[in-house]
Amino acid sequence: MKLFILIALGAFALIFFLVLLGRRRDRAREAAIDNFTFPDGIAQRVRRRYPHLTDEDMTLIFAGLRQYFQMARLARRRMLSMPSQVVDAAWHEFILFTRNYQVFCDRALGRYLHHTPAEAMRGPQDAQEGIRRAWRLACGLENISPRTPPRLPLIFALDDKLRIPDGLRYSLNCLAAAALAQTASSDGSITYCASHIGCGSGGGDGGCSSDSGCSCGDGGGCGGD
Predict the structure, then answer these.
(1) Which of 124, 34, 130 is nearest to 83 (CA)?
(2) Nearby residues of 39 by Cβ (< 8 Å), 6 or more positions away
(3) pLDDT digits (tens, 9 = 90+) for 71-116
(4) CA 49 – CA 30 distance, rounded (Å)
(5) Mean of per-residue pLDDT scores for the chain
(6) For residues 126-139, average pLDDT
(7) Cα-based angle 99, 82, 98 (whole degrees, multiple of 5)
(8) Using CA atoms, how far apart are residues 128 and 123, in angstroms rounded to an integer?
(9) CB 184 within 8 A of CB 177
(10) CA 205 to chain centre
(11) 107, 167 Cβ separation under 8 angstroms
C-alpha cells in the first residue's frame, strides 16, 4: 500500500513538473514572438508589391504577422489558414531570410512553420477548418467573443483597412456589405461573411446567402503546417 502511494505521489509530481515546464516554455515562446525584430528588408519587399503602404501601415502588418505566429503557437501543429493577403506577403518575404526565419521558428514555435499554398492543402475541408480555427484563435488573443464579435480581429481586418488589391475582406454584417463586395470585386478582392465562418451572430442580417453580396466561402489563403 505504501509503495502504491509513493508511486502515485511520484507520478503526480512528474505530471505537475511537466505541466509547469510546458507553461514556462509557452510563455518563453510567446515572448519570443512579441519581442522579435523582423529584418528590415521585409518591409521594402512588401511595399514593392503594394506601393501605397506607409511606415505606419507596415507596423500594423507586422503586428498582424505576430498575431498569426501567436495563433500558430496556440494551434499546435493543426492546420491554420491565413486570413490576410498582405500578412501572407510579409510572411512569404520573411521566409526568404532563411537563417532568420529558422532561428525565429526554433525560438517561437519549437519547429519550422511551413508555408502551405491554398491549392496544396489536402482538400476544401482542411481550408475551412483552418480558417475557422484562425478566427477562434484571433478572437481569443484580442478577447473578442467569436460568436458575437463587436469588431474584427486585426488580422481579419487588415486587408480592408489597408485597401489591399486582391485582399481578403470580412464583414460582420454581410447584407450591409453587399455594395462593398460589388465594388471590391473590381480589384480582385473578395468580401467574406464573418458569420459564415461560424463565429458571427448568425441568422437575420448577419447570415450569408447567395444574394448577400458576399462570398459564401469561408475565406482564407495560404496556411501553416
Answers:
(1) 130
(2) 94, 97, 100
(3) 999 999 898 999 999 999 999 999 999 999 999 999 999 999 998 7
(4) 30
(5) 78
(6) 88
(7) 10
(8) 9
(9) no
(10) 26
(11) no
